[in-house]
Structure formats: C-alpha cells, structure tokens
Write a structure and sequence with these properties.
single chain; alpha/beta; Aspartate Aminotransferase, domain 1; Aspartate Aminotransferase, domain 2; 2 domains; 7-stranded mixed β-sheet; 4-stranded mixed β-sheet; 14 helices; 16 strands; binds pyridoxal-5'-phosphate
C-alpha cells in the first residue's frame, strides 16, 4: 500500500469535520471531494497539482478568473485602509462609489442600493421591502407573492417560499409561507406550431389571470429574467418581461428581478432586464458582483419606493440589517470588477466568446440524444435524453468523469451546461469543445468512469 496522497488526506479530514452544502455526505464514499490548493485564471489546482477547468465559474460567481491580478491589487489596497465598519450611522468610500456606479448603470432608474451578504438575503430583503412599501401606502392586504414554476431564489425560509424546486421545497414545506406558482415561460414548452413568443404570451396570460383572481392581494412577482438557471437553464423571450412589466403597472404589483445569477453580464447585457428594455421595482444582485471574491449581495430599488419609507417614524423605515452590510472589502472587489468591465470592453468581447463557444460545442448536437441546445450570452446548455436509470446518475457520472479530463462541470439533472468566466481565449474554448465531447461520449457509452 502506498501512503495516502495529500488529496486523500485532506478529503478525509474534511469529511470528518466539514458539513458540505447541498450534499448527501454519504455520496462521498464513491464521489471524490477535491481539496483545492490554489486557482489561477480558469484553472483550479488540487493538493497534488492536478488542474481542473472551472467551466461553471465556481457556482456561477467567478467572472474574471481566479487570483485576478487587478482584483487582488484592489483588495490588498483596501485591506490597508479599512476592512470593515458598520453601515448604520457610518458610511465609506467603497459602498458609496459602488452604489453610485450601479445606479448609473440603470441610468438612475434604480437609485438606491440596500446591501447584504448572500443571494438569499437579497431576495428576503426584496420581499420584505415590497410588503412594507405597500403597508406604508396603506395597502395592507398586499401580502402575497408569485413565482414561476421551477423558480429558484435561494434556500433561507423566505427565499425558499418563492422557490419551486421539489427537492428543497418538499423537505421544508411545512415551514414555508404559501406562495402562488404560475406557468414558466420556458420556451421548451412550445407546442407544435407555437413559437417561443407564443409561450411567453401564454405564460403572461396565466400570471395575469392569477393577479386578477387575487386582485389587491399580490404584493410582488419575482422572476429570474431570461434564464431560470437552477432549474436547468430554462430560457425565455424578453417579450415575457415586457408583458409582465405592463401587467404589474396595471395591477399595482411589484416586479422583482432576481439577477443574482443572470446579472453582471451573464446573459449578454450587464443586467438581463436591459434586453427587454424594462426596469423592475427591485433588482437583486450577488454572485458575480464581487468577481467571485467575497460574499456580497444587494437590492436596487426605485427612488419612489425609497421615498415610501422616508419619514420621521422609525417603524415606517425599512427594518432590516446584517452585521456585514456593505462590507468595504466586498464593495471594493465589486468596484474592481466593474472597472474590468469598462476597461476591457467585456460585454462586447463576450459576444465573440459566446459565438466561439457555440461553434466549439456545436458537434455535440450530432448525437440525437442531445436536444434543446440553447444559449444566452455566456450561458450554454443542452438536454441529454436518457432512460430513467441513466438519467438519475448522469450528473454525478459526468462530474466524476469530467474531473478525470481536467474539466469541472456539474450538470443539473440531465441538463448539461457551461457558465464559464469571461476570460476565455481561443485555446480555452478549443479545450472546452474537445473535452466536453470526450466526457459526454464516455458517459453515454457507460464508459470507464
Ligand atoms: C444562487 C442564487 C440565489 C441564492 O444566492 P445565495 O448566495 O446562494 O444565497 C438566489 N437566486 C438565484 C437566481 C441564484 O442563482
């Protein structure tokens, strides 16, 4: 017997002391746990020096590669100025500059930013703000929320209440507020002869029917604009967002855009809503906003909603806080991230990257089991048709086989997707095209995973 490799040693120590997220820990009896030693650009390296292409941006957070020199430099500078100060009664340059910058990216439509640390908290904040804004307007019956089929908005109790993913919802259902779930505009539901726009109209009608039936009771509708990511990269037409925006105005319902995954350039525009030419009442950001460096989330809102809380009475003010609200290091990482967008003309360059990625992955479609190939900006996805027994293990098999080919990908069920960082060059793209095909072939052949 050889001595334990350092990977094995760290894996065993981790399994003895760390409870990993969203994981049936027993699976690690057969699925490896990779101890990451360091990251550079698109690559993560384990303790033995083996590398993995981070093609899902470490759960969709990393935008400009690991150990990005510009973000590192900004953080080192910030570290010597101010690591943290409370944001009640105090303010600081990074949080002010970030709020100004983000507001300017909405051309001032969303004038104020409220901060938290994780995505789920941003969703909770948007829900509470919506309810409270209506209460301050004496519309106290507006207490109900609406979300889409297959929606995912986080896993704390309030966010989970507007999430429609069976595995999460079933387990904790008794703890949750009732929420209305309406038809998703997922374009894959097109009936014969129907276009994606027809699906969008059909879904919008379902929402309006509900709003009418519950007239005066709905506080807000929450949606991930353009791509419902966690349910398996379900994509819809911008038309849906336009129809919903008009409807929300007609019926006095707030429109919450959860751009935690789709914001920060992921779908091609900085905010996904821009492609529909609309602005929501609340916009949640997290994940990519700090470049994937530090926990940071925020809710942007209209100044008219901000004004609904502006009063001498404390109880009419927004009653919410987190200890690390507006953390200066996280805000500084976000500022450095936004600066890269500007300096490198990232949104324009990503158009070419997205096209090249699409070309490199096109041969996958030659296999008739690969269906619904789709893309929106820097999200590429397809569905793999498999018999039930193979479908159940596809994701884990692909993940494990991928690692053997230096590829980090975690399919969602039978949806295979890429969400790479925005630093892909031609070589990276060729690598992805080749390895994704190799791994898929291996897994489909029931290969030697
Ligand atoms: C990840 C995600 C969240 C939750 O963010 P956390 O930081 O994991 O709490 C909420 N909404 C969407 C759309 C997400 O992708």
């Amino acid at each position: 017997m050889t001595a334990l490799s350092s990977n094995d040693a760290w894996m065993q120590r981790s399994l003895r002391s760390v409870w990993h997220p969203c994981t049936q820990m027993q699976h690690h009896e057969t699925v490896p746990l990779i101890p990451v030693s360091h990251g550079r650009g698109v690559w993560l390296y384990d303790q033995q020096g083996q590398r993995y292409f981070d093609a899902i941006s470490s759960w969709w957070v990393n935008l400009f590669g690991h150990a990005n020199p510009r973000i590192n430099a900004a953080l080192k500078d910030q570290l010597d100025q101010l690591e943290h100060a409370m944001l009640a009664g105090f303010t600081h340059e990074p949080v002010v500059k970030l709020s100004e910058k983000l507001s300017s990216l909405t051309q001032g439509h969303l004038g104020h930013c409220f901060y938290a640390s994780d995505g789920a908290s941003a969703v909770e904040i948007a829900l509470k703000m919506s309810f409270h804004a209506w209460r301050n307007a004496d519309l106290t019956h507006k207490q109900e929320f609406v979300c889409l089929q297959g929606s995912y908005h986080g896993e704390t109790l309030g966010a989970l209440a507007v999430t429609d993913v069976a595995i999460f919802k079933d387990a904790y259902g008794p703890l949750l507020r009732q929420t209305h779930v309406v038809m998703s505009p997922d374009a894959r539901q097109a009936l014969p002869g129907e276009t994606a726009q027809d699906v969008a109209r059909r879904a919008a009608k379902a929402l309006e029917d509900l709003i009418v039936a519950r007239e005066g009771k709905i506080a807000a509708f929450i949606v991930e604009p353009l791509v419902q990511c966690a349910t398996g990269m379900a994509m819809h037409e911008p038309l849906y967002l336009q129809l919903v925006r008009e409807m929300c105005d007609r019926h006095q319902v707030h429109f919450i855009a959860d751009e935690i995954a789709v914001g920060c350039g992921r779908t091609g525009s900085f905010f996904a809503c821009e492609q529909a030419g609309i602005w929501p009442d609340f916009l949640c950001l997290s994940k990519g906003i700090s470049g994937g460096y530090l926990p940071l989330s925020l809710v942007m809102t209209r100044d008219s909603i901000y004004q609904a809380f502006y009063d001498t009475d404390v109880r009419r003010g927004f009653l919410h806080s987190h200890s690390y609200t507006g953390n200066p290091l996280a805000c500084r990482a976000a500022l450095a991230t936004l600066q890269i967008f500007e300096e490198d003309d990232v949104l324009v360059k990503n158009q070419a990257r997205a096209q090249a990625l699409s070309d490199a992955l096109a041969p996958l479609g030659d296999d008739e089991r690969v269906t619904q190939v789709r893309q929106r900006g820097m999200i590429w996805a397809c569905d793999v048709q498999l018999p039930a027994d193979k479908a159940a293990t596809f994701s884990r098999q692909f993940f494990t086989t991928g690692l053997q080919h230096e590829l980090l990908l975690r399919p969602i069920g039978t949806t295979l997707y890429l969400m790479p960082p925005y630093v892909l060059d031609d070589e990276h793209i060729a690598f992805l095209g080749e390895r994704v095909q190799t791994v898929l072939k291996d897994v489909l052949q029931g290969g030697k995973a």
